[in-house]
Amino acid sequence: MALKIERIYTKPADTDGYRILVDRLWPRGISKEKAALDEWFKTIAPTKELRQWFGHDPEKYAEFKTRYIAELDANPDRDKFLELIKSHLAEGNVIMLYGAKDETHNQAVVLKEYLEKLL
Asked: What does DSSP assign to residue 1?
């Protein structure tokens, strides 16, 4: 049982687990079938304002991480998301999917670290 992150555009896709899209926007060029999602939990993603401010600029990543964690702490859906993750981890892997090109500086990386501290 592991919590994983994966870029939704990566092939082959890891389908061994519960697949959750953690982006606020649907990834361009990905059909619902190709995504093979179990759930889209867009409210756990950074706000539009934070996402636009960050703009996937690696130099802003440290500040983005701080701001996103503050958003997560205040997010009314956080506990619901945490329970969803816990329940599916009990059954197997959970794969959080994201669309960002940068595989080290994105919200899924922050979210995974955040959840691992809470679990």
From this structure: -
End-to-end CA distance of the chain: give it in Å, rounded: 12
The three-class DSSP label of residue 6 is: strand
pLDDT values of the chain reduced to their tens digit, one per residue, 119 residues: 899 999 999 876 677 899 999 999 999 999 988 888 999 999 999 999 999 999 999 999 999 999 999 999 999 999 999 999 999 999 999 999 999 999 999 999 999 999 999 99
| DSSP letters for 9-66 | T-SS---SSEEEE--SSPPTT--HHHHT-SEE-GGGSPPHHHHHHHTT-GGGHHHHHH
CB atoms within 10 A of CB 29: 9
CA-CA distance, 70 to 91, in Å (whole number)?
29
Alpha carbons 59 and 81: distance in angstroms, whole number = 29
